[in-house]
Here is the input.
Amino acid sequence: MARLAAFFSDSRALARLAAPIVLSQVAFVLMGLIDTVMSGHAGAEEQAVVGLGVALWIPVFIGLMNVVQAVSPIVAHHHGAGDYRAIVTDTREAMWLAAWAGLVPLALLPFVPSLLRGAGIAPGLADKTTLFLYGIACGLPAALMFRALAFYSASVNQPKPMMVLAFLGLGINSFFNWVLIYGHFGFPALGGAGCGWATAIGMWSGLVGLVLWTAFARAYRPFRVWSGGWSWPTWPGQKRLLKLGLPMGGAGLAEVAAFAGIAVLVGRFGAVQIAAHQVALNFASLLFMLPMGISSALAIQVGHRLGAGDPYQARRIAWTGVALGLIAAAVVVGPVVLLRHEITAVYSNDPAVRALAASLLLWAALWQFFDATQVCAIGALRGYKVTLMPMMLMLAAFWLVGIPLGAWLGYDGGFLARPLEVHGFWIGLVVGLLLVSVGLVRALRAVSEAAVRERSAVMGQGAA
Here is the structure.
């Protein structure tokens, strides 16, 4: 009974912290959903523009965002230890890191047209996708600085602002989608490319809102980032964030690039397969937000306990979070399977896109358990400040096994003697997720037990 009571107590604490994080992530995915739906009603080619654009910008953004997210476990440890001055110092360093990171996509843009044409994408589709990406690139510095502030805010137990402002940004993005996709108020009708520019406007609006919130809300008074004068970045501070954040970014990039990059890999099969992949992946991403929110809360809660010097509670919370992720996965599988045709009908009015996307959702239902396990385990490991090992596991599972297997099945058909096209790639993703979930669970067990043994040894020496 004591263990059950502890499980429910830890679950409630995680849920209180995770709920606003989940909702803010849902708003982010809904932005992609709205982009996909609104562009889809402008035609399959315009939806393919968004699909290709997302396939290229989301991996870059997720990779850079994960680098910036290093501020979360660092601030969580400081908060657990009661070191408020260090919270301010490291959050300011994270803001500088986010600003530098936001400039990276601008350096990559000149290579986009050649990449798309080299993948066999039609010239007209490639040009529209490039225009979409130029809009996104203008908003990415704001998006990354918003994330740095949001991670700081959540790590001091203030996750509500990121949720509220995420939905505000969703409304702004939707309005400007309508303006720029279809050409209202005298603006040119940019089609799917307009979604990129609308997203950039929403990104800058969110950053302004979060700066004002953290500057004036009373809850931030003990560790207000904007008071007492600003500070320039330092190499020790940037190095501290990069040491933890670069492997986090590598892990995030390895996973997301595997999922989103399939849109480019199946580009030779035509706009319908690209659009169907984007529809199914967007909905699967929406489902993923629940365990991902739990993962973010786990990194913070485990960090709080370790900062306070309690690895026993940290271990208990870590496994509670993994269990909650599996419960969340179990809840969504049935509705996805039963309602897959109704779900895809929301995204597109193209019968071919809807039918193919509905079949892909069966694979998405299958991988929910593996996906929930791996993301919750990686969140707990981040609380322990362990990031290099997860990155290596992600790279091996997806890029040495999952993607090569998907290409073999998709292009050649493997032992089936006929190409499975996009289905082959999704089978590869399922195998990759299975492998990485097993590896991360084993890593979490080893790391959490090592922390407990180390603490026990220290206490034993103190008693002696």
